[in-house]
From TrEMBL:
Domain of life: Bacteria
Any matching Pfam family: NAD_binding_8
Organism lineage: Bacteria, Pseudomonadati, Pseudomonadota, Gammaproteobacteria, Oceanospirillales
Residues covered by the Amine oxidase domain: 99-279
Name of the protein this chain belongs to: FAD dependent oxidoreductase
Transmembrane parts of this sequence: none
InterPro entries on file: Amino_oxidase (IPR002937), FAD/NAD-bd_sf (IPR036188)
UniProt GO MF annotations: oxidoreductase activity
Length: 350
């Protein structure tokens, strides 16, 4: 059985930032994710416009912003390495995008990691000799077991609950109960020339929350097309959660056309983010179950931690003096904090 010092389950923003923090100090890390690539809600997608051209979209997070010193420092490093560019400024805040696509950021942060992608964690169990044993299955149905001295789980709350052993029944129940809103996103490529004074247009619409003008991002090859990301409202997404995605996309395009005029898409794609944004009040939900958080992560055992945006969000609700940041930055800070705990445990045992 292959053994790793540290395994991180989930290669979204929390997972990749935990991995970067650990590998920067010389620790070997294995990242496991059921998706085909890194990024989670910062992932990207290409659409084929014609026989010769395809164009890239940021399917989840539109831009990176930083309010904390830790995330500001990490973004500064990425900018110095020409992996991100300043996209726009609003209310004295800088907003960045990945050079070429936002998934460049997560790839840069995991450059020296080991990966098992397109792989699900079937079970997690305490090892007789200490640490953890994980049973895995890839998309081809091949099963394998690996072991680790430390595990950080960064999957969405409901998925994390399914992974945890029954000895953590209280936290499993708490994670299952956390309310998380879905969201639909429709990507549109059109030959129509569209310009806007706003990089992201916020709308007062029942269906459409915002329009991101992807072709306006620096260092992006749009092949001469206008590229739009249409973000649905929470209410619309809940109402149409089980509807056909193509029909949902048409509704969002119609809502955008009410603002921008006829679009006549040459390529389009609709994606449903099932776990998009955690509802307010999850901090109280965990308090009600006597689960309190330290610095935005959950400690189950010294060698088993949970890091994610919901952990940091719950922490800020429990600690009013804590810094309030975006969901994306919450995930980053939670991953960094969990990694620091493992680093401290290594120093204490050295």
């Amino acid at each position: 059985m292959q053994h790793y010092p540290i395994i991180i389950i989930g290669a979204g923003l929390a997972g990749v930032n935990a991995a970067y923090t650990l590998q920067a100090q010389g620790h070997r890390v294995l990242l496991i994710d059921k998706a085909r690539g890194t990024g989670g809600r910062a992932s990207s997608k290409r659409l084929q416009c014609d026989d010769e051209h395809s164009v890239g979209f940021d399917m989840g997070l539109s831009a990176f912003e930083a309010n904390s010193a830790q995330w500001q420092a990490r973004l500064a490093t990425l900018q110095k390495n020409e992996q991100i560019d300043l996209w726009f400024q609003r209310d004295d805040h800088d907003f960045y995008c990945g050079r070429g696509r936002n998934s460049v950021v997560t790839r840069a942060l995991t450059e020296n990691c080991d990966f098992l992608l397109s792989t699900r964690v079937l079970s997690l169990a305490s090892s007789v000799n200490g640490g953890w044993q994980l049973s895995l299955e890839n998309t081809e149905g091949k099963k394998t077991d690996v072991s680790a001295s430390h595990v950080i789980i960064t999957a969405p709350a409901q998925q994390a609950s399914a992974i945890l052993p029954n000895e953590f029944a209280k936290i499993k129940s708490a994670l299952t109960s956390l309310s998380c809103h879905p969201s639909f996103v429709t990507l549109v490529a059109t030959n129509k020339k569209i310009s806007s004074s706003d990089a992201i247009m916020k709308l007062d619409d029942n269906a459409l929350h915002s329009i991101a003008f992807e072709h306006c991002k620096p260092q992006r090859d749009s092949a001469g097309h206008s590229l739009l990301k249409l973000q649905a409202t929470t209410e619309f997404s809940l109402t149409h959660l089980d509807d056909d995605k193509a029909k949902v996309g048409e509704k969002l395009i119609q809502a955008a056309e009410a603002v921008l005029g006829p679009l006549r898409p040459i390529a389009q794609h609709t994606h449903r983010w099932l776990y998009s944004q955690y509802a307010d009040g999850i901090g109280q939900e965990l308090i009600d179950r006597d689960i309190r958080l330290s610095s935005g992560y959950i400690t189950l055992r010294p060698d088993l931690l949970i890091a994610s945006d919901y952990a940091y969000k719950a922490y800020t609700e429990q600690q009013p003096q804590a810094l309030r940041v975006s969901d994306a930055e919450s995930a980053c800070l939670s991953g960094m904090a969990a990694a620091e705990v493992i680093l401290e445990s290594h120093l204490e045992s050295a």
